[in-house]
Amino acid sequence: MAIFVVRLSREMQEISRVEMMGKFAGAVGNYNAHLVAYPTINWPQIAEEFVTSLGLTFNPYATQRDLTDSTILRNMGGGLGHSLLAYKNALQGIGKLQVNKARLKEDLNQAWEVLAEPIQTVIRRYNVPKPCEGANQGKGGY
C-alpha cells in the first residue's frame, strides 16, 4: 500500500504546481456581449472577482478561438476532474478493506518463499556468509 501512497502523493504534488487559469469573458476574449446587455457593470472587475473566488488565476485575455491555445490545456480540467474522482473512489475502496489474518496465515504456510527477502535481510544484518543460499534451502527457509 505504501507504494500507492508515495505515487499518488507525488502526482498530487505535480498537479498542485499547475496554475489553473480561468476567464469570464466571451468566446473571443472580450466583454462586448456583456456590455451590450449590462453597460453599467464593470465586467473586468466582476470577472476577476468571480474567477479568483473559485481559486483560479484570472486570465482576462484567454479565448478558445486563439490558435495558440493548446488542446491539451483546454481539456486538462476534464482529465484532472476524472483523476480526482478516481483518487477519491480508490481511497474509499481502500478504506473498506479488511485484513483476513487467518487467510494470510494459510497463504503464508503454503508459500514460504515470500519470506526469502526478509529472511535474507536479517541474515545480512548478522553478517552470515552467503545469505541467499541459506534462505533458499527449501520450504521453511534457513
Structurally, how many domains make up the residues? 2
Uncertain regions: pLDDT < 50 for 5+ in a row?
Answer: none
What is the overall number of helices?
7
Strand content: under 5%
Given the C-alpha coordinates, what overall shape results? elongated
Helix/strand structural class: mainly alpha
Order of helices and strands: HEHHEHHHH
Short description:
The chain is mostly helical and 142 residues long.
Give an overview of the whole structure.
The chain is mainly alpha-helical and 142 residues long. It folds into 2 domains: 94 residues, no CATH class; 35 residues, no CATH class. Helix content is 58%, strand content 3%. It contains 7 helices and 2 strands; from the N terminus they run H-E-H-H-E-H-H-H-H. A two-stranded parallel ribbon has the order 1-2. The longest helix is centred in the middle third of the chain and has 25 residues. The model has no long low-confidence stretch (mean pLDDT 83). Pfam families: ASL_C. This is Adenylosuccinate lyase. InterPro entries: L-Aspartase-like, PurB_bact, PurB_C. GO terms for molecular function: N6-(1,2-dicarboxyethyl)AMP AMP-lyase (fumarate-forming) activity.
